[in-house]
């Protein structure tokens, strides 16, 4: 089944980013344009993600184009917490991470929501692979997800920032509203 949707980033101005995403059979392809903050130039992020039936990420390809230069990152995962670069270089610092979180997109919040199948009031703490554009340097990040009800999850950054937000999601676990950061486009 093909599904097309998009989000507008609103984190530092009314239209800080625009994302267009195509979902089909365990694959997502996205094009995202972001307006840089302060001294950061605008950039374009394209990513392609593949996952298995358990919503475990298996492959992530990311490419950034900007005035500061182009970057690419191609990661492979076995679905059991082992990560490597596409050239076979192991990434032991990411050992045990099952999910990926890419900034700036709310789509990757769908992975833990779908994979965990939490019930109302249930909470999970996770080690995530966090990748921030435009740098594309993967690192570990501890996050928490609590299902408040079928349409709302409390997201928490359990690292240094302590950031938290209540995400509104649809029946497929896709973000509708991420307060202060993203809003899903209508249509």
Automatic annotation (TrEMBL):
SUPFAM superfamilies: PA1994-like. It holds the Pfam family Glycolipid_bind. InterPro entries: Glycolipid-bd_prot_put. It comes from the Bacteria. This is Glycolipid-binding. It comes from Pseudomonas jinjuensis.
């Amino acid at each position: 089944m093909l599904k097309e949707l998009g989000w507008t980033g609103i984190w530092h101005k009314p239209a800080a980013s625009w994302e267009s995403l195509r979902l089909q059979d365990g694959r997502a392809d996205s094009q995202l344009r972001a307006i840089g903050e302060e001294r950061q130039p605008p950039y374009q992020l394209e990513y392609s993600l593949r996952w298995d039936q358990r919503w475990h990420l298996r492959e992530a390809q990311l490419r950034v184009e900007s005035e500061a230069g182009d970057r690419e990152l191609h990661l492979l995962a076995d679905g059991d917490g082992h990560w490597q670069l596409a050239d076979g270089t192991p990434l032991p610092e990411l050992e045990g991470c099952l999910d990926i979180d890419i900034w700036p997109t709310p789509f990757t919040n769908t992975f833990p929501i779908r994979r965990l199948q939490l019930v109302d009031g249930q909470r999970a703490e996770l080690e995530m692979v966090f990748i921030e554009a435009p740098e594309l340097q993967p690192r570990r990040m501890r996050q928490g997800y609590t299902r408040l009800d079928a349409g709302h999850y409390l997201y928490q950054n359990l690292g240094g920032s302590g950031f938290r937000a209540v995400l509104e999601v649809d029946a497929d676990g896709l973000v509708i509203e991420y307060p202060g950061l993203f809003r899903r486009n209508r249509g």
